[in-house]
Write a structure and sequence with these properties.
The complex is a heterotrimer of chains A (319), B (301) and C (336).
Chain A: E1 2-13, E2 16-28, E3 33-37, H1 44-51, E4 59-68, E5 71-72, H2 78-84, E6 89-92, H3 106-115, H4 122-135, H5 152-164, E7 170-174, H6 182-199, E8 202-207, H7 210-216, E9 219-224, E10 227-233, H8 234-239, H9 244-251, H10 291-295, E11 301-304, E12 307-309, H11 314-317
Helix pairs in contact in A: 3-5, 4-5, 5-6
Chain B: H1 3-31, H2 35-52, H3 54-57, H4 89-124, H5 127-142, H6 145-156, H7 160-170, H8 173-186, H9 190-197, H10 202-238, H11 249-258, H12 261-264, H13 266-294
Helix pairs in contact in B: 2-4, 2-13, 4-5, 4-7, 4-8, 4-10, 4-11, 4-13, 6-7, 7-10, 8-10, 9-10, 10-11, 10-13, 11-13
Chain C: E1 10-22, H1 27-31, E2 37-49, E3 53-57, H2 64-71, E4 79-84, E5 87-88, H3 94-103, E6 104-107, H4 121-131, H5 138-151, H6 158-161, H7 170-182, E7 188-192, H8 200-217, E8 220-225, H9 228-234, E9 237-242, E10 245-251, H10 252-257, H11 262-270, E11 319-322, E12 325-327
Parallel strand pairs in C: 3-8, 3-9, 6-7, 7-8
Antiparallel strand pairs in C: 1-2, 1-4, 4-5, 9-10, 10-12, 11-12
The chains are: A alpha/beta (319), B mainly alpha (301), C alpha/beta (336).
Amino acid sequence: MLNVDGLRVHYKTGQGLLKAVDGVSFSLQKGEIVGIVGESGCGKTTVALSLVRLLPPVARILGGKVMLHDNNILTATEEQMRLVRWRKISMIFQGALNSLNPVLPVKEQIAEAIEAHEHLSEKELDERIDGLFKAVGLDVSRKNNFPHEFSGGMKQRVMIAMALACNPEIVIADEPTTALDLIVQYQILELIRDLRRKLQLSMILITHDLSVVAEICDKVVIMYAGKVVECGEICQIFEKPKHPYTRALIWSIPKMESEKTELHFISGSMPDLTGEVPACRFFGRCPHGQRICGEVEPPVENVEPNHVTSCHFWRETAK
Amino acid sequence: MTSDMIEMQSETEDSARHVYLKVLSGFWSSYRRNPMGIIGVGILVFFIAAALLAPYATSYDPTQVFISDILQPPSWNHPFGTNEAGQDLYSQVLYGSRASLIVGFTAALIAATLGTLLGITAGYFGGLVRELLLRLTDFFIVIPTLVLMIVLASVLGPSLSSVILSIGLVGWTGTARVVMSQTLSVKERAFVESSRSAGAGDFYILRSHILPNVMPVVFAQTVLVVANSILYEAVLTFLGLGNPNQITWGQILQFAFVSGAITTSWWYALSPGLSIMLVVLGFFLTGYSLDEIFNPRVRKI
Amino acid sequence: MTSSIASAQPIIEVRKLKKLFKIRSGFLSGIMGKEKFVHAVDGVTLDIFKGEVLSLVGESGCGKTTLSRLILRLLQPTEGTITFNGQDLFTANKDEMRKMRTQIQAVFQDPYASLDPKKTIHQVVSEPLIVNGLNKDRKQTSARVNAALASVGLNPPRSFVTKFPYELSGGQRQRVAVARAIVIDPIFIVADEPVSMLDVSIRAEILTLILNLRQRLNLTYLFITHDLAVARYVSDRMAVMYLGKVMEVGPAEDICMKPVHPYTRALLSALPTADPRKHHHEVKIKGEVPDAVDIPTGCRFQPRCLYATEKCREEPMLVEVEKDHYAACHLKNESV
């Protein structure tokens, strides 16, 4: 349904050209939840913004294709994008719960979102909003309340309602549970699972937390420094991770079920994407790095059906 | 003292200078990307240079009288024309720039200092102190600024320092409000709480954390205050509240008016008027560009 | 990372601590004497033993942040006492207070906000020394700052002291925050959600650092977090708070493996598992976190508890359910 192929986005900054996204490819089927995971600065938000063409003016899309059904989003005109945004693909931005307008009742804010993309009568608008509230588990009688009267979890539900306002096919959620307490996070993830089942919703979930991904995603795309280092079905990734970075991410999750074990971490930090970067971006932090990793970019290889990785030594390093 | 410690000592001295340069160059690289700001600074540099180099830019003494050249339009000898006393307006405007700029800067300095002190105090300490200061600020805002300045200047007597004081003691309210709101936000930030938990007292926090974080806003605001001060100076001296023996642009305008020549001799008011306009423009352009850099909400990215 | 409680000597003793915040109510209700209060901390009795890491776990609004601010003396209690090494925190004289201030330090949550953007790393880390009058000798101050930076893994210190916070990553800034906390040689550190704003993959780094420093510098920690998995990894003992009171407290492993209080169980079951095969885990709780203004009578967890009975109309006290493990629940003996 959605196919991203070789997406390349750079930012023009004061310090030079920042190669934020450098050849990212993945696909999303109907009814699937794909998780994009990586550290801050790896380019995941940039990928999301590219899908709805809401990049800031300093960004340049340098190449690649984003095929939604049979149309390339990257070459669409602004007119065409206006029909795509919110109606085909909608987005919940990072930290969105803080971007609700404090002086408007939430009902009006959702109405605004709808009216920007569709024309409905008063009655239809009301019905739609009531339906949305019910769908996200909010009490319909609260639709005239102001944002500050809602808790964090409820605000996030409002944001989800807003994203669903025009019945999109795909919802992109950027760090939807990061600022939330544990139980609230669980409730939101339950809601997302519910919506996927009821509405056949397809979703792209962006997060730095692999354990959240393990909860609800079907497929995972692991990004590092602007590139996809591994991509596959959720069970494949967790049972047989092939890229050293993926493995490191999995090891760094504190697990509750078993006996307490040593927590691993990855020392060092991402390379500066405005300057010289090694051919394999993970070179330097990788415990298995060798000379070739700095010079030749690792090709994307098939590990098994639906599972790819890009590492020179994935066969050797797998335990 | 071991050699390690000596090394660290000289490194700290080097590093202080290095840090200073880093801050300045960072600032300049953001500033120079703003074309309006560059124009603004350009204008200001020009006028300040003109003020400093006045004796070299003209061969006449501004009070020198050319009896045969009374009220002459601009000519090769007198590029800006002459006044009713036969004095060269070009030299007058040149030398007058000194007083005008000095008054502007000094008055703005007084207003900025007063405004910052009051703003920080009102912002940081709540309760009665804040209420009192807010009422005081409201009082000054409500009364028409110019009227108050006129009253003050006439009470203090006709002199340049009375003009400076009247502007400074009345024009602090804008700065105070901006500083107070900035203080309110800075004092809630985590690093202030960190500092307090490490044992810092109020005075230390004000001096070491609040003030440096408030200064950018003060700086941007003060540039506009200087512009306004120069305007107010022109108005006050125009109204005759300045020292007639001291040449300022406003004083030139005052003579033009009083002598009646302002309507008949178009060049008389033109040069001082245009100078005031340009300098104020320069300050405003600079001020807005600074605001864009320092005010995160105004910035584009 | 296991370590038994270093000694049975409490370094901090909290007794019946309460902190109420008045809500600005309307004019009428003020006249009628019906003032409303937020019961941020509503009667907490707790010990922190020397050498241990005690986690304070709970959701937003449970009072853990307020409790930490009380221990740091950034707030005054409404009722109750806190003693530090036997000395009452709030009735100490000037000299005693000065000494205590150098012994208790803090690390805060937001690495982007807890460092003054206008100060160099050297200035940031040396602040506790300056503020407590210990920076008379410039060379010695530099030496202490550099030593602190080296201890937190920011090597070589020389290359960091002239940097500004914006030049460092989130993980590095948090290390600076830790360096600032230890530069004055404290014995007790309050760490308020120190890793919540960091990526999951760098959390372990900071947590390992915290534990290392505990060994090397004989520190005691109060670690505040809403993430039980993090708490389990880093702490010896855990205290679970809800609506201003402690619901369960005991050794971290016991609480995680054998939780007694329904709230603790709900929290544990809400943790995302890193195993995609294990899907549906039900969280046995209902409703939302209420605001701490109108506290229900009896057990305050009652409105959300799926197992509440008549007995729960009476407020449960913290009772020992096994060695050193206490829970405030009437149903502790029933298997749920």
